[in-house]
Structure formats: structure tokens, C-alpha cells
Design brief:
The complex is a heterodimer of chains A (about 290) and B (about 400).
Chain A lengths: L5 H8 L12 E7 L4 E9 L6 E9 L2 H14 L4 H5 L3 H7 L8 H19 L19 E3 L4 E2 H10 L5 H8 L9 H16 L11 H22 L2 E9 L2 E8 L7 H15 L5 E4 L3
Helix pairs in contact in A: 1-2, 2-5, 4-5, 5-7, 6-8, 9-10
Chain B lengths: L3 E2 L10 H7 L1 H4 L10 H21 L6 E4 L2 H15 L5 E5 L4 H11 L4 E5 L9 H7 L4 E5 L13 H10 L3 E5 L18 E5 L10 E5 L25 H39 L3 E3 L10 E6 L4 H10 L2 E2 L1 E2 L12 H5 L4 H4 L2 E5 L6 H21 L1 H8 L1
Parallel strand pairs in B: 1-11, 3-4, 3-5, 5-6, 6-7
Antiparallel strand pairs in B: 2-8, 7-8, 9-10, 10-13, 12-13
Helix pairs in contact in B: 1-8, 3-8, 4-5, 8-12, 9-12, 12-13
The chains are: A alpha+beta (about 290), B alpha/beta (about 400).
Amino acid sequence: MWDYTDKVKEHFLNPRNVGEITDADAVGEVGSLACGDALKLFIKLDENKERIVDAKFQTFGCGSAIASSSALTEMVKGKTLDEALEITNQQIADFLGGLPEEKMHCSVMGQEALEVAIAKYRGVDAPAHDHGHDHVETEGELVCKCFGLTDVFLKKVIASNKLTTAEQVTHFTKAGGACGGCIPKIKELIAEVMGEEKKTAAERPAKLTNLRKMQLIQETLENEVRPQLWADGGDLELIDIDGSNVQVAFRKACAGCASSGYTAKFVEQKLRELVSPDITVQEVQG
Amino acid sequence: MKEIYLDNNATTKVDERVFEEMRPYFCELYGNPSSMHFFGGQVQKKVDEARSRVASLLGALPDEIVFTACGTESDNAAIRSALEVFPEKRHIITSRVEHPAVLTQCRNLSKRGYRVTELNVDGNGQLDLAELERLVDEDTAIVSLMYANNETGVIFPIEEAAKIVKKKGALFHTDAVQAVGKIPLNMAESAIDMLSLSGHKLHAPKGVGVLYVRRGTPFRPMLVGGHQERGRRAGTENTASIIAMGKACELAEQYMADEAGRVREMRDRLERELTALIPNTRINGGGTDRLPNTVSIAMEFVEGEGILLLLSEKGICASSGSACTSGSLEPSHVLRAMGVPFTCAHGSIRFSLSRFTTDDDIDAVITELPPIISRLRSMSPFGREFLNK
């Protein structure tokens, strides 16, 4: 069972501001049925169109999604639009006394709905996180196809919440949480964001040390090469590594196989692709 | 708050009679059954009695029963054993709706050079035996299919499947964790080679399981060490829990008629009344054979976690196929394999009954659930669109 704070439970059991505002000045909609959660936010401004006088929501989602929506509507009341835009997903979570990390995407959804609503009211393109069924142009390249999330949006969440692992990105945005196909891309985005932040810091040497190179060769053979040989009844053994020269001996069906030359080429290709382009593979008896 | 416990497919209450049976084997009769002295010997006798009781429930022979630590261990041991027995065979068949104890292991093996086929299921969660017959071949080492599904209660035609598999020379394993004690099984007239069960699903404690291994079925142990369990599972016996397991199986045999009668009637009433009182619902797997104690009900435009939390406020314990309760972000792999639309996969709730369930428990759900669903639908942007229609 999730470890929800008392405040999350209280806002889930007695949510504030549920419903619609029929003459709302701004409406923001994010998420979809397929995603498993969705939020429709209604905002009413005062006569001078400066401050938010009322906010209501409709939410399809889990307990923390409903609590986050309730918290958001309480937080924006009395604020100007610019002040409301300053609200971060972390502040929504803090208002509730914290959310389990796996549920942080609920607070992100609240913040997104708010941005979409205000952007639409102002007649500008919303920032690039209008996934789901909202009809605003998307910006950036689609990364997570399951939940419809773009690189621009993901990089923003990674940077503002200082995320360092793909798992955290999934907790905050859901990206990578369904088929998992985009997880490598998410890792690249994290590296990119971290790289941008590190540019001013000292550059680390990118050179592959001998030790790391040998480890990578072993890992690649274990995880990428041998399973493929097993599938055909073959196998190989790593005999030695001398600089960039990798010596292997073929076993089982591969031993004495007429096409072992091709197999050696395949191994070389894999190692060049995944470890270092200067690698050569040599077949030895051993 | 008194709990109304309708989550018996997750785990069950230890029957008081089972607990009484195991109690002396902690502080008083703590001997090691392998010891040569009288003090261990008397425990050995009780372990043997437990073995016979389990065998009796399954229609098996006592020496076909191997005690393990849990259903997951039994599943892992069965599959690994088959691969060791047939080192030259590299094909495994299972289904898309298996418990993770089987599915995760098969998917890991597929990364290690094994060819893994996951059979599809239809909209009722039912297997296509013709597909199995087409796919099993001389390269197949083992076919592992669950007896009954933990989420929907759907029962697979396991005997027919086992016969198809045996014709091709592969081993047949079934994860029967949810079926044992709920429906009658008879290994004496079966083609199943190996079958897993778990203690805590049938009113024994957590931490004990069984792997049935048919006489003559080649077997290689996963845990090696001492000679326990005739060399098929090393490690000092968990004597108290094994003795509890024996008692639980004896009781399960006595309660089989209760499952088929009283429990099924309560489940049917729950299903009937909920579908009548709550619009836009469907029963997952409703069109095929199911366990008498399980109902998985899909309700459109609501999300499962909210339902469970509100039920929990009323003391009602159930379970959901929703993404949000499991830590993953996709709704249950079982419901997705069945093609249950996203609109109701997120809002699927499972109630699972037991011999301890009463008519009052069922009444409580019938009273409490409909208002919870209308409340959540009225909060949902989709629920409102639907209600306004």
C-alpha cells in the first residue's frame, strides 16, 4: 500500500473545488483515459482579469492525482496569472506533505494543466507537454510514444527536478513506464541535461581506460554475443585481451564450423559497435 | 474497524485449526527430522503425515510431493529442471497471462538464448488449444501454463493442454496456486508432469509451497546441498509450516463442497447485484469457466486505486488491475492480453472470497460500492461526459 501523508488522504477523501466553471476564463486539459489519469482545470479571473478568483477541477486518476488536483486549485486562488505560473510540481507535492516518488507524475500533471490553461487564455502556444487530448501544438521530438511525451518536455522536468536516473523520469512523467522502448533515449536526455549543467565545471576525460575497456568487452560478450551463439547451439570463450586485440576460442557447434570466420566477424562488429571502433577479433585454439 | 476481507487470491487467513497443528513445532517439538534420535524422528513422522495429506488432496502419491518455500520457488524449480533435463532443447511455451513467477523467469531465459513463445488468450482470457498444438515441437523442453488465473479466476483446459504437450515429448508444468483447494484435482488421472501450489493461498502460513513431480518425470534440483526431499530440494525442512500445509490440505478437501456451493453462490450474487446496480460494468472472463471464489469486475471511467482507497475507508479489502496500485504504469498484463479496453482496465476490481466469507460481507460491498463509483465518476472528466449523455 502506498505511504500517503495524512494531507494526501484528507485531500483525496474531501477534495476541494471539484466540478466545472461554466463561464471559465481558462481551461486546461491534460492526460487521457489510456494514460490512466487525466485532469481538466477551470480558472475564473476577477473583473480586471488579473487575479484568479476561482478554480475547479475534474480528475480521472488515482488517489494522489485527485489530491494533487485539489491542492492545485487551493494554491492558485488569489494569485495573478504570472504568480500562478511560478508554481512548480514540487510545490504541489510539498503542499501535500510530500508524495511517494512513484506518484510524482501526479503533481507534474497539475502543473502542466495550469500552464496549458494559462497559455490558452493568453493565446500563445503552450509549452511542449500538452500530451493527451489537448489540442495545442506539440513542440519537440516525440520520445515516449505510449504516453505521448516530447524531448522538450522531458528535458524540462529532468532539469527542474534534478533527475539523474531513467527510473526517476518514469516516476515523474510516466515516460518509459509502459513498453520501456524509450528508456535508452531518456538516458541520453538525462546525460544531455546533466552535460549542459556541467559545461562550466571541469571536463572529465572521455578516454576509455584499459580497465574499463576490458570490462566492457567481457560484458558485451556475455550479454550480447554468447546468447546469440547459444541460440544456434554454439558458444565461445574469451582467451585474452591484448590492447585492442581480442582473442576468442569457439566452442560447441561453433568449434570447427565452416562459417566460424563469419562468426568472428560478427563478434568483431558487435565489439566495435558497443566498445571501441579499433577492436580486432582473433580466433585462437585454446 | 472490522475488516471485510475479500482479497483471498492475494493471501488468506491462516485457519485456527492449521495454526494449532503447527504451534508445537516451534518451542517444543523443534527437532530436525533428519536426526537419528527419537526427538527428530517424531517430527519426521508428522512431516510424512503432512506429505500424505497434500498427496491426498491432489490425488497423488506421497513421494511425488516436494516441499518448497513458496509457489514462486516451485515454478522456478520446475522450469529450470526441465531445461537441465533437456539441454539440447531450447524452446519454452507459456502464456501471456501467467503469474510473474513464471513469466519473468521465461522472459529472462529468452535473453539467454532460449526461444520463448507466449500463447495469446481471447477476450474471455481463454487459451486456443489449436495454437498450442501448432507451436509445440521437438525443440520444446517445457510448457508451463497456469491452472487458473489469479486476476480473473479463468480456468484453462489444463488436462487437454497437457495431453497435447505430452504427445510431442515435452514436459508439462502448471502453476495451480489459485486452483488447489478451490476446484478438485486428480493427479492419478492426469497427464501433468509438475504442478505448483502455495500454502498461504489455502489458509496455511506464508513461506511454504509444494512442487508435485510425477513419478518417473526426470528432475534436477534447483537447491543443492543435503539429501532432504529425496535430493529434490536441499535445505532443512520448514517443519512447522510443512505440518501446517498438511493440515490446510486436509481441511481444503473437507471444504471443497463449500467452495463449489456456498462460496460460488455468494460470488454469483455479488456479481449479479453489482452489474445490476452499477451501469457500464462488465465481468472480466465472464463468458468462460472460472474459479468459484473470484470475480473481476470492470467499471468504465474510473480508476482502480481511488475505488480501493474508498472501499478501504469502509473496511473492505479488495484488489485491482489498475496501474496505479502496482507501481507499474500499465494496467494489468492479464487484462491487456484479454483486450479489455483501457477505459475499463484501469477501473477493474477483483473480489476473491473464501470459506470465511459471509453473506454480510457480500451485503457490505453491494451497499458501499455503487455510491463510490458514482462519486468517482462524477469527479472524472470522462465520467461526466458519459453521465451527461
